[in-house]
Write a structure and sequence with these properties.
Elements (H helix, E strand, L loop, with lengths): L2 H27 L26 E6 L2 E9 L2 E3 L3 E3 L4 E8 L4 E4 L6 E4 L5 E6 L4 E6 L12 E6 L1
Parallel strand pairs: 2-5, 4-10
Antiparallel strand pairs: 1-2, 2-3, 5-8, 6-7, 9-10
Bound molecules: dinuclear copper ion.
Length: about 150
């Protein structure tokens, strides 16, 4: 094997090892890996399955809330949510029909909400204001009208 070949093979393997170390560090030390727990639900029985049989906002701690939400063509239930500023909010969501999206522009909330799966995402709203929530997965003829607001004050 030529000297240059050896150098390039060493560099390539070295880069791979460095990438694996970085990804491993992010996944295990920083907890940035994809969620491994999968929670499923029968999409035909969302209305009768807890907690989705009673969607809404619940205070679960000191300025900590759980928002249980269903997404369906073409809306969000509950609609028009109001939360106090600084609240830590845990969204628990599922879809009753097709795949929808849950995106709040200006935040890092961007989730896919699929029938048969329970999607959980947490966020702390530190600034007051009216936050637009949009569906960013094409879900049918009313997709572009599927939106709601979260008012933080
Ligand atoms: Cu729901 Cu697009």
């Amino acid at each position: 094997m030529q000297r240059l070949e050896e150098i390039w093979i060493t560099v390539s393997v070295g880069i791979l090892i460095v990438f694996m170390i970085i990804v491993g560090y992010q996944t295990f030390a920083l907890g940035m890996g994809p969620p491994s727990h999968k929670e499923v639900i029968d999409p035909q029985k969302v209305d009768t399955t807890a907690p989705f049989n009673n969607p809404g906002i619940k205070e679960i701690g000191d300025n900590e809330f759980e928002v249980v939400m269903t997404l369906q063509a073409f809306g969000f239930t509950p609609n028009s949510i109001e939360l106090p500023v600084g609240a830590e909010v845990h969204f628990t969501m599922t879809s009753k029909d097709v795949t929808h999206g849950f995106q709040i522009p200006g935040t890092n909330i961007n989730a896919m909400v699929m029938p048969g799966h329970i999607q959980k995402i947490s966020h702390t709203f530190t600034k007051p204001g009216e936050y637009l929530v949009i569906c960013n997965e094409y879900c049918g003829i009313g997709h572009q009208a599927m939106s709601t607001t979260i008012t933080v004050k």
